Amino acid sequence: MKKFSILFMLLACISLGAFAQKKVSILGDSYSTFKGHIQPDVNEPWYPFDYKDKDGNYQNDVRTVEQTWWRVFLDNNKDKYVLEKNNSYSGATISCHGYKDKDGNPEDYCYRSYATRCVNLGNPDIILIFGATNDSWAGAEVGDYQYANFTKQDLWFFRPALAQLLQTVRMYYPKARVHYILNSELREEINESIYTLCGQYNVPVITLKDIEKQMGHPSVKGMKAIAKQVEKALAE
């Protein structure tokens, strides 16, 4: 009887482990922000966007955190996933190349870049990297493919910066499952660079399609579409 009880407890523990929730961390930009729900809290949020049009309607209809893509995804899969950390920062770039200042010079965005923030994701089982939108919009040059000996000057170019990011994530979280979420409507050279480098580091790419946007950012409908596509990709 004692041996049977021990065996039963062992099987129960194995069963519970098999169905335990996976901890998900998000490394993102404005698309994944919501005020009061990003870590660290000094990161700048974009949502909720409080400006209205001439008719008094909000220019982006995402008004609650429950409407964000990541909360829709997590709420629809409560038995599978739980949020570990959402380290998202509005305007963040993969490279150090930021938006232009009043004099027309690109600002240094290294302080909010993905490689700078990727070491602060907690202890995740799954990492979702959702980025490159601002690199595309800010006109960052892609540069050459480079895989070692990075200098800060190299990191002003998209390809070396993404290579360094993926290397760092693999080094810091060797047991984590990593996916890259690729926004729609980005520059083709940005897309091609992501496919090439994610292939090099064995990181699956979730290529988003048909995402409705308002003010360049996902609407409620767009957020639901992102959540659905991410859910499908992880299930596969």
Q: What this model shows, in words?
A:
This protein is of the alpha/beta class and 236 residues long. It has helices spanning 2-18, 69-75, 114-117, 133-138, 158-172, 188-200, 220-235, and strands spanning 22-28, 81-88, 97-100, 106-108, 126-130, 177-182, 205-207, 213-214, 217-218. Strands 2-1-5-6-7 form a five-stranded parallel β-sheet, sandwiched between helices. α2 (69-75) crosses α7 and α5 (158-172) packs parallel to α6 (188-200). The longest helix has 17 residues, at 2-18. The N and C termini lie far apart (42 Å). Mean pLDDT is 93; it is low at 12-18.
Task: Offer a quick outline of the entry.
Helix content is 33%, strand content 17%. By secondary structure, it is an alpha/beta fold. The longest helix is centred in the first third of the chain and has 17 residues, at 2-18.
Notable traits:
single chain; 236 residues; alpha/beta; 9 strands
Major sheet: arrangement of strands: 2-1-5-6-7
User: Which blocks of ≥5 consecutive residues have pLDDT under 50?
Assistant: 12-18
Largest sheet: 5 strands, parallel
- The number of helical segments is 7
Structural class: alpha/beta
Q: Separation of termini?
A: 42 Å
Quick one: how many beta strands? 9
Mean pLDDT: 93
Name the helicity range. Answer: 25-40%
Q: What string, H for helix and E for strand, traces the elements in order?
A: HEHEEEHEHHEHEEEH
**What proportion of the residues form beta strands (DSSP E)?**
15-25%
Overall body shape: globular
